Amino acid sequence: MTSTVTVNPTAAKAAISGLTLRYLVLAGLIVLASVGFSLANENFYSLVNIGILLRSIAVLFLVSMGMTFVMLTGGIDLSVGSNVAFAGGVGVITLTTTGSAPLGFLTAILAGMAIGTINGIFIGRLKLSAFMVTLATFALARGLALVIYDATSINVSDPTFLWLGGTSWGNIPVVIPFVFCVFVALSVLLYRTPFGRNVYAAGANFNTAFVLGRRPERSVVWIYALSGALAGLSAIVTVGRVSSGQPWSGLYLEFDAITAVILGGTSLFGGRGRLLGTILGVLLYGIIINGLVLTGTNPYLQSLIKGMILLGVVLLDSWTQRGKAA
Amino acid sequence: MNIGKILRERNIIVVTLVCCVIFFLISPRFLSVDNMSAISRQIVPIGLIALGQFFVIVSGNIDLSMGMASVFFAVLLGVFFGLTGGVGIGLLAVVVASLTMGGLIGVLVAKLKLPAFIVTLSALFMAQGLSGLVIPRGQQIFLMGGFFQFAGSQKIFGIYLSFLFLIGLCAAAYVVYNHTRIGAAIIAIGNSEENAKLAGINVDRVKIGIFMFSGLCSGFAGIMLSTRMGFVQPGLDGNGLLLDAIAAIIIGGTLIQGGRGTIGGALWGIAFIGIVNNALNLLNVEDVWHQVFKGVVILAALGVNWLLWQSKQSEAH
């Protein structure tokens, strides 16, 4: 938050090549991780498994892209996992009461956006710390999800509602091209619109952005609303994938998303990062997690490894940043 | 002091007392000695976590790991109890492990300038993983015998020993916070790290100390958790404890931007959470509503604190 908004051209060039280097390293690690797990489990490389893998991390892709916007402003959104359960609950209940899948889609996304907007108002307008506000909505959204579902899951059979998360074209799940479309749309939003420039400005230096009339407080509200809307979208995919709405879906999803985004090179302090990095980060992280599940690793060991990955990446980042500053 | 000022500065006391009256009118059993005594025992782990968290938040940070860490420490105590049949080594291990963990978090936050919420978020997951790894999967360890009986249910003058421990620790914290240079240093860091540094405060050392204390509080909370439950298992709801503790701190009027808060307020916040948790059970409110309620309470308290702070700022100008 302390760096200046004006960017000196050579520094910008260095930063881009730094990011390119990071993307190359990530791509290398993705190859390495997949080779490693394919040696451990011969099913890993089958086309079917790649389809399953991509489908299982589709939600992580969506949520992490929203998280990238949030973290570009120097914020954090701990509520997305709970929000997926809550928005899914609203969507499923709407579907079962009205029988209309489009209405279910709409209410799911609006419900996700509602939680996101609450976050945005508290963080952007009231200037309260993001982790505290989203910790409250983390509890609130999970609680609401439990209330909506009455703590049990609801089976869904409506083919339209399940289409996005459940259908495949051959070996390719429908959701993969869909995620790609969202990626393109969000890239346009981030790199080609004034809104996108405001995102970077708000993250690089909130006060300067304010003085320049970029209305960072307003951008922040919209960014959290966007993150919430993507959680709503993820809810639809989640329900489609398992053919039921579950009150505990999306548990710890926010943690996975934060790790993937940091892995993808987005700065914890805002203002620096790209969506492409997040895509690579999700791929690598997803392959690792998926591999751990496939090899039957103890879930508690998985938790430990996840925690160590996050801390390791953050440590590595701070170490390389330090090297650059010296 | 006019009524407006009382409402503004002592709002948590008013709210807590009003809640007590309402709960009493709905269910007269609420104010019985037995129930009050039960509440005093229930809030001990939450209270310990809240006390540790208080200093972290006043210094402008957060420790998200405290809930899961206390579950891990409870399990650790249980494992040592299972191995040795005694508690001495287990208690020592918990104290050493909790201080070490807090110290490590403190070093990462203070020396490497990593954001506390990320460091403690990864610590949360590591603690959760470790608590399941030190104990065979799906198992519980039952804790019986002298110490657990003593620490869990012994009373002095009708008051639970564990509650007296919490009060004693709060009293010590009160003295440190209000009457020593360490307390002043914590507040200074919460207000502005740069200014604290300019004033000659060893910011890094104070920060590491704060996280060591919050780690120790997690350790104590874990011990108290194990004595109250009578068994330990890795699946205990650590995050629920953390949320309750943070709610207590915010309700107690601590400014989450850092730099302001009182131990007395935190104690009232702890009391409020204890009373509400108890009343929700006593009034047979369905479990699913508890979390909704907590989320709303935290958001509302954040909003109210913000409004009060805002009005104070405009008064000052």
Features:
heterodimer, A: 326 residues, mainly alpha, ABC transporter involved in vitamin B12 uptake, BtuC, two-stranded antiparallel sheet, 77% helix, 2% strand, globular, disordered N terminus, B: 317 residues, 14 helices, transmembrane (chain B), Ribose transport system permease protein (chain B)
Provide the fold topology.
The complex is a heterodimer of chains A (326) and B (317).
Chain A: H1 9-40, H2 47-72, H3 80-98, H4 101-125, H5 130-149, E1 154-155, H6 159-166, E2 168-169, E3 172-173, H7 175-192, H8 194-204, H9 206-211, H10 216-242, E4 244-245, H11 253-263, H12 275-294, H13 299-325
Antiparallel strand pairs in A: 1-4, 2-3
Chain B: H1 3-9, H2 11-26, H3 33-58, H4 66-84, H5 88-110, H6 116-133, E1 141-142, H7 146-153, E2 155-156, E3 159-160, H8 161-179, H9 181-191, H10 193-198, H11 203-229, E4 231-232, H12 238-251, H13 263-282, H14 287-316
Antiparallel strand pairs in B: 1-4, 2-3
Q: Given this structure, which CATH class of chain A is correct?
A: Mainly Alpha
Compressed to H and E, one letter per element, the order of chain A equals HHHHHEHEEHHHHEHHH
Output the radius of gyration of chain B. 20 Å
What is the share of helical residues of chain B?
A: over 70%
Largest sheet of chain B: 2 strands, antiparallel
In terms of quaternary structure, the protein is heterodimer
Transmembrane segments (chain B): 12-32, 38-57, 64-83, 89-109, 116-136, 156-177, 208-226, 263-280, 292-309
Pfam families (chain B): BPD_transp_2
Subcellular location (chain B): Cell membrane
GO molecular function, one term (chain B): transmembrane transporter activity
What does this structure look like?
The complex is a heterodimer of chains A (326) and B (317). With 326 residues, chain A is an all-alpha fold. Chain A has one domain (36-325): ABC transporter involved in vitamin B12 uptake, BtuC (Orthogonal Bundle). Chain A has 13 helices and four strands. In chain A, the strands form two sheets. In chain A, strands 1-4 form a two-stranded antiparallel sheet. Chain A has a two-stranded antiparallel ribbon with strand order 2-3. In chain A, a hairpin with a 2-residue loop joins strand 2 and strand 3 (172-173). The longest helix of chain A has 32 residues, at 9-40. The radius of gyration of chain A is 20 Å and the shape is globular. Chain A starts with 8 loop residues before the first helix and ends with a helix. Residues 1-9 of chain A have low confidence and may be disordered. Chain B has 317 residues and is mainly α. The model of chain B has no long low-confidence stretch (mean pLDDT 89). Chain A binds chain B through residues 76, 118, 122, 126, 128-129, 131-133, 135-144, 146-147, 150-151, 255, 258, 262, 268-269, 298-308, 310-311, 314-315, 318, and chain B through 62, 64, 108, 112-115, 117-119, 121-133, 137, 234, 243, 246, 250, 256-257, 287-296, 298-299, 302-303, 306. Chain B: Its main location: membrane.
